[in-house]
Amino acid sequence: QVQFVESGGGWVQPGGSLTLSCVDSGDILSANDMAWYRQVPGNERELVARITVEGRPYYTRLSGRFTIRRNNANKTMVLYMRPLAVVDTATYYCNTYPAGTYWGQGTQVTVST
Questions:
Q1: In angstroms, rounded to a whole number, what is the distance separating the alpha carbons of residues 103 and 107?
Q2: ω into 14 cis (within 30 of 0)
Q3: Could you say which of 3, 39, 84, 107 has the lowest number of CB atoms within 10 Å?
Q4: Exposure of 32 in the CB half-sphere (CA atoms within 13 A)
Q5: Residues 6+ apart with CB under 8 A from 8
Q6: Closest by CA position to 2, among listed 33, 30, 23
Q7: In sequence order, what DSSP letters do the residues of 48-87 get, joined into one string?
Q8: 63 CB-near residues (< 8 Å, 6+ apart)
Q9: DSSP 25
Q10: How far apart are alpha carbons 31 and 63 in whole angstroms?
């Protein structure tokens, strides 16, 4: 039962940029606080940034260089990532905040020289 679809990942060099997108196939995103999470192999999934239904963003130590935005009418959320660093390499997921049970496949971000 996949609710969210993430896209926009890829390979970039340090200092580059990516824009991650999250699309909701249902009606969850527009009615809930949302967040971006990430997971590095061998580690637990962790919160990157979150945004309230009203659009107020909250950042963590992982997202000081990023910007989170949402469009409730379009049922989408984005994460503008710039400038990227090697430490940002991970698979990124979107979900509600707090996170629900079902996760999408995520989108892989790889930052390397």
A1: 12
A2: no
A3: 39
A4: 15
A5: 18, 19, 20, 21, 78, 107
A6: 23
A7: EEEE-TT--EEE-TT-TTEEEEEETTTTEEEEEE-S--GG
A8: 36, 48, 49, 79
A9: S
A10: 23
> Within 13 Å of residue 87, how many CA atoms lie on the same side as its CB?
7
The amino acid sitting at 68 is I
The encoded tokens of residue 30 equal: 């527009």
pLDDT bin (cut points 50, 70, 90) of residue 12 is: very high
DSSP bridge partners of 49? 36, 59
* pLDDT tens digits, 65-85: 999 999 999 999 999 999 999
Q: From residue 35, how far is each of 11, 56, 81 by CA, in Å?
A: 22, 11, 14
Q: What pLDDT score was predicted for residue 3? A: 86
